[in-house]
Amino acid sequence: MRIAVAIPCYKVTQHVLGVIAAIGPEVETVYAVDDACPDGSGRFIEEHNHDPRVRVLYNPQNRGVGGAIITAYKAAIADGLDIVVKIDGDGQMNPALLPQFVRPLLSGVADYTKGNRFFRPESVQGMPPVRLFGNAVLSFLTKLSCGYWNIMDPTNGYTAARTCVLSELPLDKLEQRYFFETDMLFRLNTVRAVVKDIPMDSVYADEESNLKIGKVLPEFLRKHGSRLWRRYVYNYLVRDFNVGSLYSLSGLVLLSVGIMFGAWHWFVSSTTHQPATSGTVMLAALPIFIGIQCLIAFLHFDVSNLPTEPLSLSLNNHARDIKK
Fold it and tell me: Which CB contacts under 8 angstroms, 24+ apart, belong to 45-50?
């Protein structure tokens, strides 16, 4: 397996050379992507780096961390590499952990791995409480919208991916900024790729985050809602129609009928001052209760409907069959 490392470079001149120096010999190529950095990260690396594995790529304009990684992904696919590991250039991701991220991909049990800072209680001791709470909320929203109920810490940017799986994704349609990691998980779910978490410790310096929660929260909620709807339509109505489809549709219909029936009779009772009969109350309550139970059953089905067979295995088998 030919392994590459992708490093998005934006205002990281103080740390990026140390990150490159810590990358082990198992890596064949290092893509350092200058994302229109005002500090000239690309030129700085070219002038001071002595590692022959490093190849500097330039984005003509700033596209965010997602845009930088997409540039590296495309280069790795074009160069015929097998695995791409994404490591930030600010020194907060330990390159020594790279073998742990790559091992599930090499053994064929996963298509994509990502860091999880919540796996061990000791790992989150240095995490600010606000970030701890925010990541917990984002993790639940991502589980709901992307379908990977077995993962945590969705915004973690330490990742590794098989390039054959990346080739199946519409890379140009991926979000390029703060929502990149979540959108990547959504796209991976649409092709039924297997994703696994890799335990790691959190490292935080005194830097101030550029992410303003009050500003991006409405956008995040809208994008999560959009991907939840698209995932449901694709997985339960278009690509397949299964018992989860029946649970969800039945639950929505029964819940809607019960609410509308109950609301109408409540309105009639309030205007006529005639209390509703017990039978009317039961006819309104029963569809609501059954509908809620159906939706809970659908949620249980969705949680258990995780991809289990790595996509890379079937893609490699298909490639071998073509060669034969």
Answer: 45/9, 45/16, 45/17, 45/20, 48/17, 49/17, 49/20
In single-letter form, the type of residue at position 206 comes to D
Tens digit of each residue's pLDDT (9 = 90 or more) over 119-172: 887 777 767 787 778 778 888 999 999 999 999 988 889 999 999 999 999 999
Spacing of C-alpha 256 from chain mean position: 32
Report the C-alpha gap between 41 and 4 in whole angstroms: 19
Q: Are 248 and 289 in contact (CB under 8 A)?
A: no
On whether the CB atoms of residues 48 and 72 are closer than 8 A, the answer is: no
164, amino acid identity: C
**Encoded amino acid at 20, one letter:** I
Tell me the C-alpha to C-alpha distance, in Å, between residue 223 and each of 29, 67, 140, 239, 313: 34, 18, 14, 22, 31
d(CA 60, CA 75): 15
Q: CATH second-level architecture of 3-236?
A: Alpha-Beta Complex (3.90)
With b for 16 or more beta-carbon neighbours within 10 A and e for fewer, the 117-151 pattern comes to bbbeeebbeebeeebeeebeebbebbbbbbbbeeb
Residue with tokens 């999560």: 224
* Nearest-angstrom CA–CA distance, 94 and 202: 10
Rounded to the nearest 5°, which phi and psi values hold at 204? Answer: -130, 130
Dump pLDDT digits (tens) for 249-277: 999 999 999 999 999 999 999 898 888 88
Looking at the whole model, is its pTM more than 0.70? Answer: yes
Task: Check if the beta carbon of residue 92 is closer than 8 Å to that of residue 201.
Answer: no
CB 17 within 8 A of CB 49: yes
Tokens of 197: 């978490």
Tell me the two tokens of residue 304: 């258990």
* Beta pairing partners, 33: 8, 57
